[in-house]
């Protein structure tokens, strides 16, 4: 009997000791590539570190061999790269445990003497003891030309999405603006129009009054519950600027010599709470209400504004500046403020946005991407199918008739909030104010920790 | 299903039951003593309640390790697995686990969401169980709040005839087709040691390790790199340890004391099917990341029971228990290629801690004619729900204490030898809710010739859940709020059972039961749009759920052959005042089950087979017509049949038992349905997970008995 008992427990122990084995994962080669596709020669005052990135932390030491090809530029005269050999090659060590390497490019002609000079750097060999491959950004160009494209992560500020980020593709320049730093935008084009800040969920309603001092809180309180974003009443679409971005679609009617008073819901401050990973906390405190009246004043505007119960109002004159889409005004400072870059210096705006859902009215969207439709920057979407891929798409595939008259081409349809990922079945083409065509694909909207508000995209010049 | 076809099996079974001349009670039935709802343990036959018993032999024939393995074969009960939480919960009469109380030795058993209700059946281990008793219907007087649809009372084994009993077993199961002995399949190792220290003291301990490696089905497991929805498991893998200990003291035949301890530990791994490819265009490589969770549950149960009889005949039964269950979560980002975990967060997800005591006195008059029982039940539940529980609808962590202080009494009056009636009432005082009551009236009439008629009327309140009370999800575009002023829902049920027992000679036994019922839950809590703007939602006591039905079950034993067959028919109607559109017509469904076992004593072999047919089930769901306007349509969940079969054989003087079996022979995995309602941000599912396909098991058990 005891023998049996023993035998049983030996068997038993065997089962407990059973170790878990893991399935094999398909390996990727080790890759060394340039961090950027191109550098702007004119913006390198003295020197620039040209960074090489590894696909993973290096498991061993090695070398990467780079060839230097010049056009109208001479090493030692126009530029210098330390450690470069006579035959225009560079040998950069890969150190075990590192995830990147780099070398210094020295600009010897700053500011510059001639804009036809360029230097091209190509990775020609990776000397590494494990499987490796040359792929991705295998070359980079230092020139006075437009950007060849980049991978970039506009800093909209994490899950509160506090920033609006204006991005210029050809110069790789981002401009950040705090979302609730402005309220009204006075159009600087031919028309006389005033837009509201949809990124903080503002809403306005035209009142049957032209005397601003006659409006009181009690005379408008009946409207306040509906003059708001996200009430699921389709009629509330009238209280926001039409989201396609056409200037004719502003909620405030065209400005003439006389105009109605508008009830203004100032929306919300930027949220401050930290939501669960994958979620956003866009709206903070309600910013309250104003009454406004805007009239034309010569080639500019006159804004009258006051708190709802105020029997008097303030007045400010606002001029147009044709270099910009809008002149912006803030009720925080009661003055005009700088918001957008000049209108031909941005293509995309990463922002919270008030959109319309058919049948449900206005609805607040986070992670929105707008193209600068007011400056004529248009885009269209391409669905990946068969041979039509982001990688294959080139200039000959662009169809000019497809460009949309809408700023929401990328919009919010680029990301799936339930899965927390960017759709990989679509990409976009954009034509900028200099006539450059760029293809754009969205890569992510969460960071590696799963936090929302970290969009990332890649774009590439079509040429 | 027409009335004619319904009648047919009933008459057939009843006719078979009435065939014999010599009516008497089957011996096996006589031995079947139940405790659920009784003043004192007594035979099924004498019980005023209709108690269904799943015996140890039934459990062994199905090689049931936990409650989820077992209940699927019962009529009007469905086990509902959840692929997102890894829990399996019970549904009775279409009501979910919130309405069903699960007890061990008369005491509700804790889990991370409640005391008695919300139970995850896979967490209830059966290795020290003598039998399972099921009573359907509202049992508020006997068992307090939340026993609306019924109760499942698990009775542990409390004695042994051997001085030492050592019972180890190993059980290996395939999960569908998946099995490799290491990280695929289900692996159970268990040992039970029982010891009679002396005639007064008995003790036992059990230890069970249940390693369920999850069901992949078409999914690709942990190391899948792509964001195509295929990462992870169809059923989550879990690894459980159950340890239990018991110490019983029986100083004399009049008194019995025991202490039982239970420790349970579970690890459930959730692998996110959403994979962030984390593509790096510069190197044209990816580094996929997924947000994974590991849930760890731990339960401790202490239970003390004293029961017995004073010299004057007064009997007492007293319980004292402290229980707690905590579900912790380790939430992290997982780099699939390298296996690196980062951004690891550990916190308590949800927990319940409960003090429980219950006591009753009965047999005041020591009379056969009339008996009283008075009792009290007090519990205090400390609950915690992190903001991540409740489907992420709590904005902050919820910490609440709920005290329930009940007194109850009933009297059993026997009028003549044939008729007994038992009215009862319970008052439930609560630290949060208005005082509630539960009432019951049961009667049993012995019609003679082996016929018994039982009528049971009962009521029971159901307390609101944390989600219903404390949800708070408000932002610019949403407004969904719990309602701290909710009142309990009110259940009422009426059951009528006609039982016919018949015996012929030593060999033939028949037991046929015809039951019919009506069950109604008023003040059902549902999310309601409040204010007329239709965009703010709050929970309210608004809807009604009602169901009626009838069933016929028959058990027969003939020598070494046992046969059971049952058929049930029910209708469910929901009055949804919470919905803009609803239809409260009754929707009907049928279920049938059967099982058979045959013993071959010469070979020490038992063959058994189980079958259950679940007819199509219907539910009204909101859909859109061609114009896009909302309409109510009748959705259907397809029918399915499950079949299990086992062979068990004993060797070495019955000490070594080998059980070989197949579960789910019809290979049920997902059943098509269009009877699910989609939510605001999600479409309705098109199938419901019910099983993991045809699977096989082998159980090797050895009984080392000494003395």
Automatic annotation (TrEMBL), chain A:
<dbReference type="Pfam" id="PF14064">
    <property type="entry name" value="HmuY"/>
</dbReference>
<feature type="signal peptide">
    <location>
        <begin position="1"/>
        <end position="19"/>
    </location>
</feature>
<protein>
    <submittedName>
        <fullName>HmuY family protein</fullName>
    </submittedName>
</protein>
<keyword id="KW-0732">Signal</keyword>
<dbReference type="InterPro" id="IPR025921">
    <property type="entry name" value="HmuY"/>
</dbReference>
TrEMBL record, chain B:
<dbReference type="GO" id="GO:0044718">
    <property type="term" value="P:siderophore transmembrane transport"/>
</dbReference>
<keyword id="KW-0812">Transmembrane</keyword>
<protein>
    <submittedName>
        <fullName>TonB-dependent receptor plug domain-containing protein</fullName>
    </submittedName>
</protein>
<dbReference type="Pfam" id="PF07715">
    <property type="entry name" value="Plug"/>
</dbReference>
<comment type="similarity">
    <text>Belongs to the TonB-dependent receptor family.</text>
</comment>
<feature type="domain" description="TonB-dependent receptor plug">
    <location>
        <begin position="45"/>
        <end position="151"/>
    </location>
</feature>
<keyword id="KW-0675">Receptor</keyword>
<dbReference type="GO" id="GO:0009279">
    <property type="term" value="C:cell outer membrane"/>
</dbReference>
<keyword id="KW-0472">Membrane</keyword>
<keyword id="KW-0998">Cell outer membrane</keyword>
<dbReference type="InterPro" id="IPR036942">
    <property type="entry name" value="Beta-barrel_TonB_sf"/>
</dbReference>
<dbReference type="GO" id="GO:0015344">
    <property type="term" value="F:siderophore uptake transmembrane transporter activity"/>
</dbReference>
<dbReference type="InterPro" id="IPR012910">
    <property type="entry name" value="Plug_dom"/>
</dbReference>
<keyword id="KW-0732">Signal</keyword>
<dbReference type="InterPro" id="IPR039426">
    <property type="entry name" value="TonB-dep_rcpt-like"/>
</dbReference>
<keyword id="KW-0813">Transport</keyword>
<dbReference type="InterPro" id="IPR037066">
    <property type="entry name" value="Plug_dom_sf"/>
</dbReference>
<keyword id="KW-1134">Transmembrane beta strand</keyword>
């Amino acid at each position: 009997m005891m023998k049996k008992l023993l035998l049983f427990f030996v068997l038993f122990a065997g089962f407990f000791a059973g170790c878990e084995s893991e399935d094999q994962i398909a390996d990727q080669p080790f890759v060394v590539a340039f961090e950027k596709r191109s550098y702007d020669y004119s913006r390198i005052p003295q020197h620039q570190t040209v960074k090489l990135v590894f696909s993973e932390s290096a498991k061993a030491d090695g070398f990467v061999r780079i060839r230097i090809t010049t056009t109208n530029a001479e090493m030692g005269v126009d530029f210098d790269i330390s450690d470069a050999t006579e035959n225009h090659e560079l040998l950069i060590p890969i150190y075990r445990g590192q995830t990147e390497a780099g070398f210094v490019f020295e600009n010897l002609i700053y500011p510059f003497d001639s804009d036809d000079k360029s230097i091209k750097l190509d990775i020609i060999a990776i000397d590494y003891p494990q499987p490796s491959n040359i792929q991705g950004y295998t070359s980079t160009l230092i020139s006075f030309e437009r950007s060849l494209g980049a991978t970039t992560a506009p800093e909209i500020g994490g899950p509160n999405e506090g920033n609006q980020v204006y991005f210029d593709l050809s110069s790789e320049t981002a401009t950040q603006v705090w979302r609730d730093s402005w309220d009204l935008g006075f159009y600087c084009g031919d028309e006389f129009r005033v837009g509201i800040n949809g990124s903080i969920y503002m809403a306005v309603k035209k009142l049957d009054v032209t005397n601003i001092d006659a409006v009181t809180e009690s005379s408008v309180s009946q409207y306040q519950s509906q003059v708001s974003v996200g009430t699921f009443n389709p009629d509330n679409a009238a209280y926001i600027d039409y989201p396609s971005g056409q200037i004719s679609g502003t909620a405030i009617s065209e400005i003439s010599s006389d105009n109605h008073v508008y009830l203004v819901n100032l929306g919300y401050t930027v949220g401050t709470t930290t939501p669960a990973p994958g979620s956003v906390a866009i709206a903070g405190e309600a910013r309250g209400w104003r009454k406004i009246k805007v009239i034309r004043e010569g080639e500019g505007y006159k804004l009258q504004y006051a708190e709802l119960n105020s029997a008097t109002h303030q007045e400010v004159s606002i001029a147009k500046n044709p270099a910009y889409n809008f002149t912006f005004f803030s009720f925080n400072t009661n003055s005009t403020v700088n918001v957008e870059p000049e209108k031909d210096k941005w293509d995309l705006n990463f922002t919270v946005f008030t959109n319309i859902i058919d049948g449900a009215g206005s609805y607040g969207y986070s992670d929105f991407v707008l193209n600068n439709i007011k400056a004529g920057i248009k885009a269209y979407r391409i669905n990946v199918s068969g041979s039509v891929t982001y990688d294959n798409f080139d200039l000959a595939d662009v169809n000019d008739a497809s460009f949309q008259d809408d700023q929401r081409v990328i919009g919010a349809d680029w990301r799936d909030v339930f899965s927390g990922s960017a759709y990989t079945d679509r990409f976009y083409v954009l034509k900028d104010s200099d006539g450059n065509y760029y293809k754009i694909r969205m890569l992510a909207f969460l960071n590696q920790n799963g936090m929302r508000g970290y969009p990332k995209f890649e774009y590439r010049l079509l040429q | 299903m027409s009335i004619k076809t319904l009648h047919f099996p009933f008459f057939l079974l009843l006719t078979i039951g009435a065939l014999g001349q010599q009516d008497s009670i089957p011996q096996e039935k006589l031995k079947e003593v139940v405790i659920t709802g009784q003043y004192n343990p007594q035979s099924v036959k004498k019980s005023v309640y209709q108690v269904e018993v799943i015996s140890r032999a039934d459990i062994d024939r199905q090689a049931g390790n936990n409650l989820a393995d077992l209940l699927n074969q019962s009529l009007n009960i469905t086990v509902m697995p959840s692929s997102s939480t890894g829990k399996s919960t019970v549904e009775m009469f279409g009501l979910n686990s919130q309405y069903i109380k699960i007890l061990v030795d008369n005491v509700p058993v804790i889990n991370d969401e409640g005391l008695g209700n919300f139970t995850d059946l896979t967490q209830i281990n059966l290795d020290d169980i003598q039998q399972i008793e099921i009573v359907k219907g509202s049992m508020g007087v006997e068992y307090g709040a939340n026993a609306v649809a019924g109760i499942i009372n698990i009775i542990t084994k409390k004695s042994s005839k051997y001085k030492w009993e050592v019972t180890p077993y190993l059980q290996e199961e395939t999960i569908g087709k998946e099995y490799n002995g290491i990280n695929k399949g289900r692996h159970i190792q268990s040992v039970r040691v029982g010891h009679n220290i002396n005639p007064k003291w008995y003790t036992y301990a059990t230890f069970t390790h249940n390693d369920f490696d999850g069901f992949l089905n078409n999914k690709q497991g942990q190391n899948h790199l792509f964001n195509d929805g295929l990462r992870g498991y169809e059923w989550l893998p879990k690894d459980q340890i159950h340890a239990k200990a018991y110490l019983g003291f029986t100083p004399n035949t009049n008194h019995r004391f025991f202490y039982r301890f239970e420790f349970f530990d579970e690890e459930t791994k959730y692998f996110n099917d959403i994979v962030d490819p984390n593509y790096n265009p510069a190197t044209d490589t990816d580094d996929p990341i997924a947000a994974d969770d590991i849930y760890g549950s731990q339960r401790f149960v202490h239970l003390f029971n004293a029961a017995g009889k004073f010299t004057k005949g007064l009997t007492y039964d007293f319980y004292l228990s402290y229980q707690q269950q905590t579900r912790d979560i380790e939430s992290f980002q997982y780099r699939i290629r390298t296996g690196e975990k980062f951004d690891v967060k550990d916190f308590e997800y949800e927990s319940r801690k409960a003090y429980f005591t219950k006591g009753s006195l009965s047999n005041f008059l020591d009379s056969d004619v009339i008996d009283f029982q008075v009792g009290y039940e007090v519990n205090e539940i400390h609950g915690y729900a992190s903001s991540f529980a409740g489907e992420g609808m709590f904005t902050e962590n919820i910490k609440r204490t709920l005290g329930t202080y009940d007194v109850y009494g009933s009297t059993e009056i026997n009028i003549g030898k044939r008729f007994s009636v038992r009215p009862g009432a319970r008052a439930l005082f609560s630290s949060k809710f208005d005082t509630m009551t539960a009432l019951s009236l049961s009667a049993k009439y012995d019609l003679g010739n082996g016929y018994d008629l039982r009528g049971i009327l009962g009521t029971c309140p159901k307390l609101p859940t944390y989600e219903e009370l404390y949800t708070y999800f408000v932002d610019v575009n949403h407004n969904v709020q719990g309602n701290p002023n909710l009142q309990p829902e009110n259940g009422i049920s009426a059951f009528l059972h006609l039982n016919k027992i018949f015996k012929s000679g030593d060999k033939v036994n028949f037991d046929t039961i015809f039951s019919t019922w009506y069950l109604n839950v008023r003040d059902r809590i549902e999310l309601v749009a409040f204010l007329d703007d239709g965009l703010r939602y709050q929970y309210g006591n608004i809807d009604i759920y009602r169901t009626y039905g009838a069933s016929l079950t028959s058990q027969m034993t003939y020598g070494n052959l046992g046969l059971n067959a049952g058929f049930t028919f029910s209708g469910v109607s929901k009055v949804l005042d919470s919905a803009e559109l609803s239809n409260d017509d009754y929707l009907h469904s049928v279920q049938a089950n059967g099982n058979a076992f045959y013993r071959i004593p010469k070979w020490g072999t038992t063959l058994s087979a189980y079958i259950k047919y679940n007819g199509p089930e219907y539910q009204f769901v909101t859909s859109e017509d061609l114009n896009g306007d909302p309409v109510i349509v009748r959705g259907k969940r397809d029918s399915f049949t499950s079949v299990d079969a086992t062979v068990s054989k004993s060797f070495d003087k019955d000490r070594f038992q080998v059980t070989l079996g197949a579960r789910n022979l019809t290979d049920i995995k997902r059943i098509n349905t269009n009877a699910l309602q989609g939510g605001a941000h999600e479409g309705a599912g098109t199938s419901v997970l019910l099983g993991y396909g045809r699977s096989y098991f082998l159980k090797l058990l050895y009984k080392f008995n000494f003395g």
